[in-house]
Design a protein that fits this description.
Length: about 150
């Protein structure tokens, strides 16, 4: 299927870039890019660090934060016509899953979108993101493997 090949190429290129640039742990919380918590038992942290982490978590998991992110995404979606050749792809769009990609695009014909993730020393991960054919596609790629090259 034409859309599947183009999606694979676009997501593969993005995942290669992501893999090359990011070696952060999945158990990391950051504050403006500075690591606050990384692979650490929360109970063993100093009181000041616990407060900072709690504040970040409280912010990210708030309705206001989610609404602001959704508004930003909607603004991006409305800026131009995203196609299978030029998708809107956002890494970790809500700041809660650094092994995810938000993907949005439209196609001329109604199609069903699926993807496969391949990484060294792991089983392939297959996902069908839409159960029926559509012309507007909006989904989150999940299943990326940390600290290795992911092929989509």
């Amino acid at each position: 299927m034409k859309i599947h090949r183009k999606l694979v190429v676009c997501l593969f290129a993005f995942a290669m870039m992501l893999s090359a640039c990011s070696t952060t742990s999945t158990a990391q919380i950051t504050d403006n890019g500075d690591a606050v918590l990384k692979n650490t038992n929360f109970d063993s942290l100093e009181s000041r660090t616990k407060k900072k982490v709690a504040s970040i978590v409280e912010t990210v998991y708030s309705t206001d934060y989610s609404n602001a992110v959704k508004e930003n995404i909607d603004n991006l979606k409305n800026k131009k016509d995203y196609t299978e050749d030029d998708m809107l792809i956002i890494h970790d769009s809500y700041g809660i899953n650094n092994l995810s990609l938000y993907v949005y695009f439209k196609t001329d014909k109604a199609v069903q979108v699926s993807y496969t993730i391949q990484a060294n020393d792991t089983s392939d991960f297959n996902e069908t993101v839409e159960k029926s054919t559509k012309k507007t596609h909006e989904f989150t790629v999940i299943g990326l493997i940390p600290n290795t090259t992911n092929k989509l």
